[in-house]
Amino acid sequence: MALSHCFWTAKSSFKKVEMEMVEYILQGHELQNDVQTMIQVFLPNRRYLQKETVGGGEITVVSRMEKGIASAMLYRHGEKRAEQSMAYDPQTLTEKEQKRIIKRTIYELLKEETGIRPQWGLLTGVRPAKLISAMLAEGKSDAECIAFLTEQYLVRQHKAELALTVAKAEQKLLAGNRPEEISLYIGIPFCPTRCLYCSFTAYPLAQYQNRVDEYLDALCKELEFLAEYSRNFILKNIYIGGGTPTSLDEGQLERLLQKVEELFRPTAAEMEYTVEAGRPDTITAEKLRLLKAYGVNRISINPQTMNDETLRRIGRKHSVEEIRRVFWQARQAGHENINMDLILGLPGETAADVRHTMEEIEKLMPDNVTVHTLAVKRASRLREELEQYDMTTAQVLEEMLDIAAQYAKKMGMEPYYMYRQKNMVGNFENVGYCHPGKEGVYNIQIMEEKQTILAAGAGASTKTVDPSTDRIERVFNVKSVEDYIGRIDEMIERKKAGLPQGGRI
Ligand code: SF4
Fold first, then answer.
1. Long-range contacts of 201-205 (CB under 8 A, 24+ apart)
2. Does residue 277 line the site of ligand 1, with CB under 6 A?
3. C-alpha to C-alpha distance for 451 and 293, rounded to whole angstroms
4. One fold for both 1-117 and 176-493?
5. How far does the centroid of ligand 1 lie from the alpha carbon of residue 244, in Å?
6. Is the dihedral of CA 376, 379, 383, 385 positive or negative?
7. Residues paired with residue 438 on neighbouring β-strands, in sequence order
8. How far is CA 361 from CA 201, 277, 418, in A?
9. Mutate which of 279, 346, 370, 376 to test ligand 1's pocket (most atoms within 8 Å of Cβ)?
């Protein structure tokens, strides 16, 4: 028996999402996270609650593992509706296999009930290519990797092939990593307005205009400390993100770029120096010129969609025409590596809208295109107002992803990095495509966690990686702009205490 109307169906393009509660119960194991994330794949954007016993809730999933039998059971209003079981050998059960079996029973249960067949099967982690990377490192063949994903984890063939392509591209780019190499992230947490789906540390410029200079004072102080700390290392990547760094006015932007130049000398040809220009309504010809003059060799101009109506709906205050204008201005200013971020599954968009977006992007021919699928984050306005929007179904999103992949291929681009987030519509993936040689290496470093990334700014987190053990330590900055300005000395002290000392990270 199929579940109620609240599940996505294949019949309609949109579904108003209802904030329904899903309860779950664990019996004979404690794999809470695996159970909840597997349920979320089929029933996203609900509220989830672990319980002890079956009550009268709309939906309850029971996951049980005992005496060689793993089962998943579905209850509606306290009445059992379906069950899936599989046998296992308790003598030889590893932790990894236990997780796989638990997920498999829930997968079979909810697949039957919802009619959804997730393209990534049982894989719920952030990095789908990770398993493949490990297998390639063990010397497994391409065919063995694909068979493992499709047979053990029920990943669909084309997604398994995508994971293999990405794992190989990442391996190639990370192969040159040396222990003394590090990256630097600089956060500018201001934006002209807050996008509907935003969950980042981003403050509306109109309210914070008079704090920006003080923010830069604090940021410069933190950068001075990090420059001193990192003297014995080789800086490979600088990434200025946010927020929207180009929210700074021209004078403020130049002040920041000058400081970075003075402290980190980012002119070495092999250094990747990225600035997320982001919102077209913050970009001017002069800012593009400054970025080029100070050695920035990779920028992002992020339309998200090339449909004016959607831009309005998501809270952007610029038009598609402006996106085109700043893109050509960037080319005129000499920017030869431009990324464009897109989001699939924005409220109200159809597959035809995505096709239109890709046609427009193809005319611009950027060097990178990063295709995200919408994630409904807890801290976003979208999450609060979810019931007001038409959300894309998993089936339509699948079509949208295929359209984006086709156009990327048509533009001569290859997928080179991929990650997933929780609460992504349909549990799909974000993929970075690029022309050969135009990869954003910082993106891979941050995803693979193989390199130390020093980070400055409100909400930024520094992550040190010990290359001999892969041990990761984190030092967090406060999120609020006011706290960051007022407590900058404490942020520096935190780093002095938290960063490994003695010239070794
Ligand atoms: S541009 Fe990015 S950081 Fe700024 S509000 Fe939009 S999603 Fe948030």
1. 201/243, 201/458, 201/459, 201/479, 202/242, 202/243, 202/244, 203/243, 203/481, 205/247
2. no
3. 28
4. no
5. 7
6. negative
7. none
8. 28, 17, 20
9. 279
- Cβ(200) – ligand 1 distance below 6 Å: yes
Distance CA 132, CA 138 (A): 10
**Which of 164, 36, 60 lies closest to 422, judged by CA?**
36
Q: Is 343 in the pocket of ligand 1 (CB under 6 A)?
A: no
Q: How many CB atoms lie within 10 A of CB 395?
A: 19
Helix, strand, coil shares of the chain as percentages rounded to 5? 40, 25, 35
- R_g (Cα) of the chain, nearest Å: 24
Q: Could you give the CA distance from residue 68 to residue 302 in angstroms, rounded to a whole number?
A: 51
| CATH level 2 (architecture), domain 176-493 | Alpha-Beta Horseshoe (3.80)
The pTM is what?
Answer: 0.87
| Residue 259 CA: distances (Å) to CA of 147, 217, 242 | 51, 11, 18
C-alpha dihedral (199, 345, 43, 149), degrees to nearest 10: -100
Q: What residue spans define the domains of the chain? A: 1-117, 119-175, 176-493
Ligand 1 pocket residue status of 279, Cβ below 6 Å: yes
> Across residues 249-277, what is the average pLDDT?
91
CA dihedral sign, ordered 39, 40, 45, 48: positive
CA distance 280 to 192: 10
d(CA 475, CA 464): 9
Of 165, 241, 207, give the one whose Cα is nearest residue 408: 165
Residue 466 pLDDT > 90:
no
Residue range 351-362, pLDDT digits in tens: 999 999 999 999
From 244, 341, 380, the mutation candidate for ligand 1 (largest count of ligand atoms within 8 A of CB) is 244
| Rounded Cα gap, residues 283 and 300, in angstroms | 11
Residue pair 153/121 in contact (Cβ under 8 Å)? The answer is yes
Token readout for 46 is 């609900």
According to CATH, what is the number of the domain 1-117? Answer: 3.40.50
Q: What are phi and psi of 186, to 5 degrees?
A: -125, 125
Query: What pLDDT is recorded for position 387?
Result: 82
Whether residue 32 is predicted with pLDDT greater than 60 in this model: the reply is yes
What element of type H or E holds 475?
strand 471-476
Cβ partners under 8 Å of residue 126, min gap 6: 419, 420, 421, 447
